[in-house]
Amino acid sequence: MIIVIRSVLFNLAFYISLIIQMILFLPLTLILPRKKAWIVPKFWARSNLFLQKYIVGTDFVVEGAENLPEGAYICAPKHQSFWDVYAFLSYTPDPVYILKRDLMRIPLFGWYLKKMKMIPVDRGTGIKALHSISGGTQEAIADGRQIMIYPEGTRRAPGAPPAYKYGVVHLYANLGLPVVPIAHNAGLYWPRRKFLRYPGTIRCRILPPIEAGLDKEVFLQRLIEATETACDEFLVHASQDNNAPPMPPTAKARLAELQAQRNEAETKA
Q: Where does the record place a coiled coil (predicted)?
């Protein structure tokens, strides 16, 4: 019951804060130069983290911030929750998100996206969408920005089999930039399509950059292996916490697979 009450309070606070900040800070955002205007969305991100910590009891830790390069690179976070949309804003000086064009049409929110020069894409347009992404990233690269793309395209439940899209491979091959994978387990504490929020500690790891110039298949395999190995580690760790969050079916299935792999390795040893 306490989790339900905390979830209600957090969701109310989250959306009320979002609306108030969008209205209150819009004039400042429109007046400031784009790079200085980042003070507004980054303040919003920090306020969300504050609300989640003190209302729900969900904290977070980030390892590997030293792995972030300077200047332009491709940032490829795992996408499990709305949490990972804003949580890494403090770690990237001038990110540009590749996002659905429909988001640009939302009153107020879309105005912020246009001000920050995000890259809109029409889903389902295939090759045309890939070319529009490449075109939109050229200006961002020249300005030393960080290209934010979720390799799986949409939110995936913790433990679900990886479903990486070709978009990140296309960007990697055409932009000639290193890719920084980011693994985390936020979906256990802020589940996709769920109302409840759970207390605990979200664990994140900024992994070493994958250098530019690799074969496409080699790159994709390295991206998947690095990200999913760290996510598996976080999943196991969370399942062993004294205050473990509820495990979705995908997480339970993956934990069983990992246990079977460990048992097999021990048998062979």
A: none
Distance CA 262, CA 265 (A): 5
Task: Answer for the pair 110, 215: CB distance below 8 angstroms, yes or no.
Answer: no
Pairing assessment for the beta strands 200-206 and 179-184 based on DSSP bridges: antiparallel
Identity at 199, one-letter amino acid code: P
In one-letter notation, the amino acid at residue 39 is I
- How far, in Å, CA of 15 to CA of 7, rounded? 12
C-alpha to C-alpha distances, 79 to 86, 153, 174, 228, nearest whole angstrom: 11, 8, 23, 12
Answer positive or negative: Cα dihedral of 220, 119, 159, 198: positive
User: Any idea how long the chain is?
Assistant: 269
In the chain, the amino acid numbered 223 is L
Q: Is 55 exposed, middle or buried (CB count within 10 Å of its CB: 0-12, 13-18, 19+)?
A: buried
Q: How many CA atoms lie within 13 A of 101 on its CB side?
A: 9
pTM of the predicted model as reported, rounded to 2 decimal places? 0.91
| Domain spans, the chain | 61-268
d(CA 244, CA 247): 8
Q: Is 158 left (phi over 0), alpha (psi -120 to 50) or beta?
A: beta
Q: CA 239: distance to chain centroid?
A: 21
